[in-house]
Design goal:
By secondary structure, this protein is an alpha+beta fold. The strands form 3 sheets. A 5-stranded antiparallel beta sheet has the order 8-7-11-10-9, with helices on both faces. Strands 1-6-5-4 form a 4-stranded antiparallel beta sheet. Strands 2-3 form a two-stranded antiparallel sheet. β10 and β11 form a beta hairpin.
């Protein structure tokens, strides 16, 4: 074999090698981008499911208030606030998610079951309702039940459109955690709902975190600028998706979005490996095939050129 043909073989082999490596790198990058897009879509779908369930829960509680507001005795100006409240005490028995439904006068006065008069004028749900606004407040720990409780406030108008009373409905905050518990992704994923104004966790499968953990504080303590940027976006009520590297941990997938008509946002976090492990087998197979092709070419290309050289001689 001439020196020229040896050089030809070397150049051809090198070109083939570079071309194959280049194609493999491009395929690998494209595969990673496709995987990330699929993860984003999967996380987004999960967040949408949680949003829909929470919205439905909130809507159903306001619907209970609207139904109660149609009762003739509730709008009757000749019926005392105590009698109206007593008519509403039994509403909670119709729905296990309810703690109670009550009505106040315009000064915020009302009655609890078999109890004295209470004044609710300093409560946020009353302050908004008296201004004609429907409002959602909480969850907070209910002093009566010692459980996380969401309060729904709403105004009550007479047939002429004059504000005559306000309603407030107390519902179990645990329902938010139940929604999170069956909307999960990955093996060690975290699905939580937080209050945007404070960063306080209001729904989490880990009950110890509820109304105790604060993701804004956690982000500040983490030393991760990426996580701090994410919590800034959450506080602003934005939606987003990121793949970040936390200090001393593996890469994390983070998705978040606000829940309409509330001060709440849902956050989903999962290990990136929960998704890549599912495709690792395919990537290994590609590597094996690629190596086999390269090994095959290392024999075929020189053989073809050598054969051509022999024929020319």
């Amino acid at each position: 074999m001439s020196e020229r043909n040896k050089l030809h073989i070397a150049v051809t082999f090198l070109f083939t090698l570079i071309s194959c490596v280049g194609l493999f790198v491009i395929a690998d990058i494209t595969s990673a981008q496709t995987l990330n897009s699929a993860i984003k879509e999967q996380v987004g779908s999960l967040i949408k499911s949680i949003q829909n369930e929470v919205n439905a829960y909130n809507y159903s509680n306001f619907a209970t208030i609207r139904i109660a507001s149609t009762l003739p005795i509730i709008k009757d100006p000749n019926v005392s606030i105590k009698e109206k409240a007593e008519q509403l005490f039994g509403v909670k028995d119709a729905d296990s998610n309810l703690i109670g439904l009550n009505i106040t006068d315009l000064q915020g006065n009302s009655y609890l079951v078999e109890g004295p008069m209470y004044n609710f004028s300093e409560r946020a749900y009353f302050k908004n309702a008296i201004q004609g606004k429907e409002t959602i407040f909480g969850p907070i720990f209910n002093k009566v039940t010692n459980l996380p409780t969401i309060f729904y406030g709403a105004p009550l108008y007479d047939d002429e459109g004059t504000l005559i009373n306000t309603f407030f409905l107390a519902a179990h905050g645990k329902t938010l955690t139940e929604i999170c518990s069956h909307n999960v992704i990955g093996t060690d994923a975290t699905t939580i709902i937080i209050r945007r104004s404070t960063g306080l966790v209001i729904a989490d499968i880990n009950s110890e975190n509820i109304l105790n953990a604060n993701i804004f504080d956690d982000a500040a303590d983490s030393g991760s600028k990426d996580l701090q940027d994410i919590t800034t976006n959450i506080a602003l009520g934005q939606s987003g998706f990121s793949i970040i590297k936390m200090p001393n941990t593996e890469k994390q997938v983070v998705g978040y979005a606000p829940i309409e008509n509330t001060d709440w946002s849902v956050i989903v976090m999962a290990n990136y490996s929960d998704f890549t492990n599912k495709t690792a087998g395919h990537r290994h197979l590609i590597m094996i095939i690629f190596s086999a092709i390269m090994l095959l070419l290392s024999f075929i290309v020189p053989a073809i050129i050598s054969k051509k050289d022999d024929l020319q001689q």
